[in-house]
Amino acid sequence: MNLVLWIIYAVIALIATVFLGLREFHMLQLNGYKTPEHSRWMKKNKKRYIPNCLMLILSAILLFLSPVINTLDPVKAQKLGDPVYVSAAGTITLILLIVLMLFYLGIILANKPGKKFKKPLVYTARMKRMMITFGILIAAVFVGAFFSAARLHTIDTDGEAEKLLRFRTNMPFFLVNLGVCLTPILVPLSNLINKPVEKAVQNWYINDAKRILSECPTLHKVGITGSYGKTSMKFYLDELLNSQYNTLKTPESFNTPMGVTITIRRDLKPTHEYFICEMGARRVHEIKELCGIADPHDGIITSVGPQHLETFGSIENVVNTKFELADHVKAKGGKIYLNGDNELIRKKAPEYPDAVLYGLQEGNHYRATDISVSDRGTEFTVTAPNGETQRFSMKLLGEHNVQNVLGAIAYAHGTGISLEKLTLPVKRIAAVPHRLQLLDKGGNMTFIDDAYNSNPNGCRAALNVLGLFDACRILVTPGMVELGAKQEELNFEFGQEAAKACDHIVLVGKTQTVPIYNGIRDAGYDMDNVFVADSLNEALAHVNAYQTDRKKIVLLENDLPDNY
């Protein structure tokens, strides 16, 4: 054993640490930089860390088997009184080191750059700061390993004083390996260490966004939240209001405090008349936090349901958090628009007597009736609170889309746009990307892309849309997640409903989709028409190869991110 071997070992370990760290940073980012949520994710994916545990055990054995001191020069070592490292323990140590280096090479190959992700790691300013902190922690481990590895001694050899580098074989290897093994812990630790700094940075940006809003006194702000449907509502309302007003909406799924802040600081202009702010939440009081930033005059609550139950804890917490928007609007004297067809919203609505209800059922202030749905679009009649009626047609598929468009119509009508003037913008409304978006691939196949963030109501609505088509109806899904204790039950029910609506079913993920598979089987479905794929690519390849005389209509229901 010598210093050269130790340096080679350390370099390989360092590369493995970097690659493993990048993977962990990516997962942390996908988990929203939330350390508690990331910790739960690590617990659910504990099998990923089995190699780390094995390496830690091997390094502990290495430490135990290496009590003797090896030197660069065995002859001089003998003069020092140190034994030459030729024992059986030395042989075992060498074998263990080779095994550990193979582990490192495996980590490097498994996490090498160039791997394609649905949502790649984004090197934001926050991510770069966290990586610097992580680098300092790892450097401390490696420096500690180096100084435990070597030290200079003055010895007398043949009557001459001479410096000799003595090399310890136990601690350095253990410390280096400890750094690699603890990388999954050091990454979230870096996030925790940086938390005060990040909080200060966020507060500065948030306060600057508030300043910008305060300089736009004529800007009318509307907040939109809901367990599902809020992004679609945002796009629909923007289309309708833009027919008469200059509007700004939060782009894509920019529904977090920093997403809203970025939109205000980057895109808001003095000429804007309406700011449509989507508000997302995974925990109690997060809507209240967003209201503190955007300060909406009005609000729309599209739905309340069993979404993100793992972080909310209960459906009651979901209800109360969504209605934090209604509380804010009520305090400001603004208007709150509620989906009156949603059972949980309907129960809560009496607490807000001035709320405007919209929906398909009787008792709503704005009501849609005479709904006609086909694979070419949807027609319906809207009745306003004053009794005015208007017939609308749109390209969107499904009765459930009528609810969100109706909510947008209700709000736009409340701003002073007549129902008649809203007919053309409603006709122009296009499907929101990945939300029941019809994609005609030509030839024998059409996709219904509903891949964004599936939920129980959305699954039922998507299956209803699939049922509109006279074709070979194929479902591709990994199922639903973040449903807490109800996840298995709701996925089982999804499987039973899919069995009634589909001619062929492709499940993505052998473990994740077990409840759906059981639901399909329990419904008496022909299991020869069920295929379980390991990945979305394998699922799509199967769909392409699937033989049928009819046109294939393929529903892509949900697409789990890389951290699932």
Average pLDDT works out at 85
Largest sheet: 9 strands, mixed
Q: What is the C-alpha radius of gyration, as a whole number of Å?
A: 30 Å
Please tell me what the overall shape is. Answer: globular
| Total E-strand runs | 18
List the strand order in the largest sheet.
Answer: 5-6-4-7-8-9-10-11-12
Topology:
Layout lengths: L2 H28 L4 H10 L5 H16 L3 E3 L2 H7 L7 H23 L14 H25 E8 L2 E9 L2 H11 L1 H11 L1 H20 L5 E6 L4 H12 L5 E3 L7 H11 L6 E5 L7 H9 L3 E4 L7 H4 L2 H8 L1 H9 L3 E4 L3 H6 L7 E4 L6 E9 L2 E7 L5 E6 L4 H16 L4 H10 L8 E4 L4 E6 L5 H11 L5 E6 L9 H15 L2 E5 L5 H9 L7 E4 L2 H10 L6 E6 L7
Parallel strand pairs: 4-6, 4-7, 5-6, 7-8, 8-9, 9-10, 14-18, 15-16, 15-18, 16-17
Antiparallel strand pairs: 1-3, 2-3, 10-11, 11-12, 13-14
Give descriptors for this structure.
22 helices, 6-stranded mixed β-sheet, 564 residues, 9-stranded mixed β-sheet, 18 strands, alpha/beta
